[in-house]
Design brief:
With 519 residues, the chain is α/β, with parallel strands linked by helices. It folds into two domains: 57-99 and 454-519, Sandwich (Immunoglobulin-like); 101-446, Alpha-Beta Barrel (TIM Barrel). The chain has helices at residues 5-23, 109-116, 120-131, 173-189, 226-243, 260-263, 275-292, 312-318, 321-324, 342-352, 379-393, 437-446; strands at residues 28-30, 36-40, 58-65, 72-77, 87-99, 102-106, 140-145, 195-200, 251-253, 299-306, 329-333, 357-362, 397-404, 407-408, 424-427, 432-435, 454-460, 467-472, 477-484, 490-496, 500-506, 510-517. The strands form three sheets. It has a nine-stranded mixed β-sheet with strand order 4-3-22-19-18-17-5-20-21, covered by helices on one side. An eight-stranded parallel β-barrel has the order 6-7-8-9-10-11-12-13, surrounded by five helices. Strand 20 (490-496) and strand 21 form a beta hairpin. Helix 2 (109-116) packs across helix 4, helix 3 crosses helix 4 and helix 11 runs parallel beside helix 12 (437-446). It is found in: Lysosome membrane. This is Glucosylceramidase. Belongs to the glycosyl hydrolase 30 family. Pfam families: Glyco_hydro_30, Glyco_hydro_30C.
Length: 519
């Protein structure tokens, strides 16, 4: 009689658990682009929440697919024996490769404006989706220095002509009223220190050969000259001003897409460098300026441009000992990746210069003139993200940074109307935001591959359309990520020699993350 309450208690616990699970499901909306978006507002948003692993001998699975699944959880158990048939994916703990530094996106002016256009509650909800422990584990934020195309106007921090000493250097309202407050809020939500990455699009017009922020133009003079030294000090001043708000940077890039200012007449902000000019500017100006500043440990990433420029760009810069001693890594963008095999660009660069890490600093969907702008619910774009991340990770890249954290339904604002897509699209009028399939493509990596996770060997016994990568995290967990871009379901077996075997299925057009404790 005394114990009669136990069944009721158990039933209530199950009900509460079930309600909690249901409450975090995607509120799906279909806009006719192949799959669905998940709708969020100030009081509701689906969330994978904190992901724990089952005991040794069991595994967790998380599935997203074109059919509408979004990080759907599952569990299963290992067996001691192989089924002995079909496709087997083997994880090799003894083949060890690069370690992860992080995943993230960019706090552009446009992203900040869109986030700020929501109510305070919806703003917090959006930031939590990226940065809190209930979100998808972003730890990297790229921050444009002054304006880029995803700004509402053209500006730099030193627009006073001939101000070589940067006495009139000042941050913009876009920094102090938008980006900095949001970065502070993101950091307050994050369980780990955020790694901020600074990238400049253009030097002030008066420093440049074309006297304009846009189009073809380089720094006046030569490396070692006054313009080049002022441009290096501009970075230092930027770090000093942000530090006043307790916002500090892990790394900088030597400038966004330097080939654009040399080879392309960009309609938006650009600063041209050849690899030789970049090499000499780092050796003579930027490197010494950083070393003598309060920020000597800031990482310097060269290139910050399409990976098809590798390995040639890296050879020119990194073969010079005077420049190389200041450099930590090579930053790559994903545009035009299909033109050059990853092994030729990324693989060759890593094998020649293994001490310098490779880091993805920009990618977005909707940039191609043939497939422009926002497509709400596009699964094709999620697959493009996942394929590129997998290919990069399997060729020594240590992190992958998306472009704008949030855009409006037009794919802006963008002063030159260079509209693209984003993992989160904001509808300010209705105080809601949409999480795109690309958001979940990022989640399958960023949520599970913690900093210092190390890639290990993974192989298949048969030719397969599945794409995969495997990592061991600092906590000892094994993470296996599988992409199926085919229109057929694929059944497979996983073998971890340390634990055993299990069978699983990758549905058509799906992304699957499997995780387990190996000891």
């Amino acid at each position: 009689m005394v114990l009669s309450w136990i069944p009721v208690f158990i039933a209530l616990c199950f009900l509460v658990t079930n309600v909690a699970t249901e409450s975090t499901k995607c509120a799906a909306k279909n806009f006719g682009h192949g799959s669905v978006v998940c709708v969020c507002n100030s009081t509701f948003c689906d969330s994978p929440s904190s992901i724990g692993l089952p005991p040794v001998g069991q595994y967790s699975s998380y599935l997203s697919d074109m059919a509408g699944g979004r990080m759907e959880p599952g569990q299963g158990a290992f067996g001691l024996n192989s089924t002995g048939s079909g496709l087997r994916i083997t994880v090799n703990h003894f083949q060890k490769y690069q370690r992860i530094r992080g995943f993230g996106g960019a706090m552009t002016d446009a992203a900040a404006i869109n986030i700020m256009s929501l109510s305070p509650g919806a703003q917090d909800q959006l930031l939590r989706q990226y940065f809190s422990s209930e979100g998808i584990g972003y730890s990297v934020v790229r921050v444009p220095m002054a304006s880029c195309d995803f700004s509402t106007r053209l500006y730099t921090y030193a627009d006073t002509p001939e101000d070589y000493n940067l006495e009139h250097f000042t941050l913009a309202p876009e920094d102090t009223q938008h980006k900095i407050p949001l970065l502070q809020r993101a950091q307050s939500m994050s369980p780990v220190p955020l790694s901020l990455l600074a990238s400049a699009w253009s030097a002030p017009a008066w420093m440049k050969t074309n006297d304009a922020l846009i189009g073809k133009g380089s720094l006046k003079g030569k490396p070692g000259g006054k313009e080049h030294k002022s441009w290096a000090q501009y970075y230092i001043r930027f770090f000093e001003e942000y530090a006043k708000y307790n916002v500090t940077f892990w790394a900088l890039t030597t400038g966004n897409e330097p080939s654009a200012g040399k080879m392309t007449n960009y309609s938006f902000q650009a600063l041209g460098f050849t690899p030789e000019e970049q090499r000499d500017w780092v050796a003579l100006d930027l490197g010494p300026a950083l070393h003598a500043s309060s920020f000597p440990n800031t990482h310097v990433l060269i290139l910050d441009d399409n990976r098809l420029l590798l390995p040639q760009w890296a050879k020119v810069v990194l073969s010079d000992v005077h420049a190389a001693k200041y450099i930590h890594g090579v930053a790559v963008h994903w545009y035009l990746d299909h033109l050059v095999p990853a092994e030729i660009s990324l693989g060759t660069t890593h094998h020649i210069y293994p001490e310098y890490y490779l880091f993805g600093t920009e990618a977005c969907a909707g940039w191609s003139p043939l497939d422009r702008g926002v497509k709400l619910g596009s699964w094709d774009r999620a697959e493009e993200y996942a394929h590129d991340i997998l290919e990069d990770l399997n060729h020594y890249v240590v992190g992958w940074t998306d472009w704008n954290l949030a855009l409006d339904q037009n794919g802006g604002p963008n002063w030159v109307k260079n509209f693209v897509d984003s993992p989160i699209i904001v509808d300010a009028e209705n105080d809601i935001f949409y999480k795109q399939p690309t958001f979940y493509a990022m989640a399958h990596f960023s949520k599970f591959l913690w900093k210092e996770s190390q890639r290990v060997g993974v192989s298949a016994n048969l030719k397969t359309e599945l794409e995969c990568t495997a990592f061991i995290r600092p906590d000892g967990a094994v993470v296996l990520i599988i992409l199926n871009r085919s229109s057929s379901e694929v059944r497979f077996e996983v073998w971890d020699p340390d634990v055993g075997y299990f069978t699983s299925t990758a549905p058509a057009h799906s992304l699957l993350t499997l995780a387990w404790n190996s000891h």
